[in-house]
Design goal:
With 387 residues, the protein is of the alpha/beta class. It is 45% helix and 15% strand. It is built from 16 helices and eleven strands. The protein has a seven-stranded parallel beta sheet, sandwiched between helices. It has a four-stranded mixed beta sheet with strand order 9-8-10-11.
Amino acid sequence: MKKIVILGSTGSIGMNAVRSVKNLGAGWRVIGLSVRSNTEKLLEQIKELSPEYVSVFDAGAAKDIKGQLPAGVKLLPPGKEGLAEIASLDEADIVLNSVSGAVGFEPLIASIKAGKTIALANKEPMVMAGKLIMEEARKYGARILPVDSEPSAIFQCLQNIKDGGYDDAVRRILLTASGGPFYNSGTDMSSVTPEQALKHPRWSMGKKITVDSSTLMNKGLEAIEIKNLFSLPISKVQVLIHPQSIFHSGVEFTDGAVLAQLGQTSMTLPIQYALTWPDRRPSLAAPLDFYELAHLDFYRPDFSRFPCLGLAFEVGATEGLLPAAMSAADETAVNLFLEKKIKFTDIFRIVDGTVAACDGGGKLTFENVMETDRMARAAALAAASRL
């Protein structure tokens, strides 16, 4: 019996994870679910899955649901305490972390210190302090398996390379991006609305990651995540705009061979692979029909139209606290944009200004990362108030 905990169970990744666990059938069981505040959907999942533990981050929502839980379901404390507790349950074999943003940082550390296998869809912690996180994982015997489509594709392509040998074996990481809703459009970027930014042409995702995809910041964040997951220089990561989202990413090795992972536009495959690794099982993803694939297109990214991507690569080349500042400023700016308090093009202005004002040379420790995160959020809010 494999026992699974799903953090962020009512989000897009979480709901696909529930579908994937059910598809795996006998021998797989969800024992823990966490949400921020969507208790209505959580109650449906509790009825469907009969977990032993639930965590509701929002204190008000946790109070409201307390009297509605079936017998045998334990409600953990709200906030960070309950999230860390459910992320480190003794009986859990795999913790799928799909919490959005920096709030996923502390439960990730809790899972690592508990020595868990972690299916990680929350990239922000790996951007903020990925080098330290990988060191902690080795220290505590935890394993981190990427869930996002592109990092998962790269992970799959590197399966025949021993840990620690990636840099010697890899010439280039071929990191693909759909380009989002604006790449081939003539849209005036300064007039983009949240409704337009949230209409992704290929993927159904949470709001924050969808906006990041429309600015291409998401590819920059993934490049930093890949750098830290595989101990590779970010200079080896090449972004390819690939509108069809069939070639999910690949690796060019030093001998000239290129391996790539191709598949339908479905998150169920990378989610299930992280759960069943190193084994493969039939998934919910439909097979590719190569006779129906007329062509696969690849384009160079436009760094001038999408400056967030270039900024992320510049920041990712550093080893200090700047990635944490950039991640925090981006999360803050995206939230302000979604609340219609700033323009789409202001996202870059705020993030760029916050990074420029940050002293990123401090020692990379978890404490310093969290302090940088706090200060960058305050600086981004202050910058927004001056626009």
